[in-house]
Amino acid sequence: MTLKQLEAFYWAATCASFAIAAERLHLSISSLSKRINELEQSLGVGLFDRSGHRAELSEAGRRLVPRAWNLLQEAEAVRRCVAVDTGLTGRCRIGVGELTALTWLPRLLKLARREHPDLVVEPMVEVGAALEHGLESGQLDCAVIAGRSPRPDICSERIGEARFSWVIASDTEPAASAMSDRLLDAHPLITLALGAGTTRLLDDWLNDSGLDVRQRLICNNWGAIAGLVSEGVGVGMLPAAWAAELARRGRIRVLKSSPALGPLPYSFRWRRDDTRPVVPGMLAIARQAIDFSARNRLL
Fold first, then answer.
1. How crowded is the C-beta side of 43, counted as CA atoms within 13 Å?
2. Are residues 191 and 230 in the same domain?
3. E strand or H helix at 253, and its extent?
4. Which residue ranges does the record assign to the HTH lysR-type domain (predicted)?
5. Which of 3, 38, 109, 286 has the largest CB neighbor count within 10 A?
6. Contact 52/1 with Cβ under 8 angstroms?
7. Domains in the chain: how many in total?
């Protein structure tokens, strides 16, 4: 029995598929399966039931999962105790939302490359719900997502917040200076899809203000929302820095609101069972990089 065999087994057991586990360990699927087979031969028992469409943990496999995790934890502790810190290496798959990608993701990638030149960071851009699923399934090593995770197996560390403003096209409803029930009655509310972090912020604001939405126009892209609002298709909310820049150009007007839109907190998330050095390393870099007021060069 070797640590590499236990590592292959553990990630195969806790990821959504052997393919994802193999990718996480930078192995081919055949190499991953070979290590698991060798472990099974060493233990004299099958750890997976392969009779169905996909491999499922056997009873022995389920008993081994927590023990394998403990052994891997001890091995990592030993490595950290004696190893010389030469920086992070390998590959890190980090999930971010579109707003992060359009503002401070470039800074994060530059900082990671400068501080850890042997680490390859691969970003994936998706809505929060999809990123959370990617963490749980093992497709992602870490992610930056609005809010905190409700799942006990996912750790969340708050690292910053984003602020938003209500906006309308500059030539639409020229007498309007604040969000109102009349505006929401006359114009569609342009918003991101329900899986986005801004959904909670929007719902909380509507509840606190006592306003109702007659019509929603769902869009999955911040740039498209900015364009639709600028063209007078409806009202919406945009990141505060974007709203200020577009207002400066005369394309939109920023609307007052009572109550004001609250800040949207963002957290760095990772699987609780992932104690590799890459996790705290990327958390530290994310803390340095986060800035939702960073200029969007696409505007």
1. 20
2. yes
3. strand 252-255
4. 1-58
5. 286
6. no
7. 3
